[in-house]
């Protein structure tokens, strides 16, 4: 959060045209996420399938592996 507070402090000192440039840059950053950060098809399918599951998947995996520990 420290960096966010510093950024907000610095934004206060900018004029309106500079603020517009910063805003456009932020929008560009949000649109151009690196490929590895974008949700992929299979990833989204798995998220959708797991969304209806209750509890944590990790707990289920641990209980299934309990006999191997």
Structural class comes to mainly alpha
Mean pLDDT: 84
Cα distance spanning the termini: 40 Å
Number of helices: 4
Strand content: under 5%
Tell me the series of helices and strands, N- to C-terminal. HHHH
State the helicity in percent bands.
55-70%
Report the uncertain regions: none
Number of domains: 1
**Shape, per Cα inertia axes:** elongated
- Biggest sheet statistics: none
Count of distinct strands: 0
What is the radius of gyration computed over CA atoms, rounded to a whole number of angstroms? 21 Å
General description of the model:
- The structure is a single chain.
- This protein has about 70 residues and is an all-alpha fold.
- Helix content is about 65%, strand content about 0%.
- It has one domain.
- The protein is built from 4 helices and no strands.
- The longest helix has 16 residues, at about 15-30.
- The radius of gyration is 21 Å and the shape is elongated.
- The two termini are about 40 Å apart.
Provide a concise account of the structure shown:
By secondary structure, the chain is an all-alpha fold. The protein contains four helices and no strands.
Q: How would you describe this structure in keywords?
A:
69 residues, mainly alpha
Helix-strand blueprint:
Layout: H1 2-12, H2 16-31, H3 41-50, H4 57-65
């Amino acid at each position: 959060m420290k960096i966010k507070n510093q950024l907000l402090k610095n934004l206060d000192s900018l004029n309106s045209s500079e603020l517009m440039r910063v805003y456009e840059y932020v929008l560009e950053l949000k649109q151009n996420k690196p490929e590895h950060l974008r949700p992929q098809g299979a990833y989204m399918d798995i998220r959708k399938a797991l969304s209806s599951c209750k509890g944590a998947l990790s707990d289920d995996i641990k209980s299934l592996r309990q006999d191997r520990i």
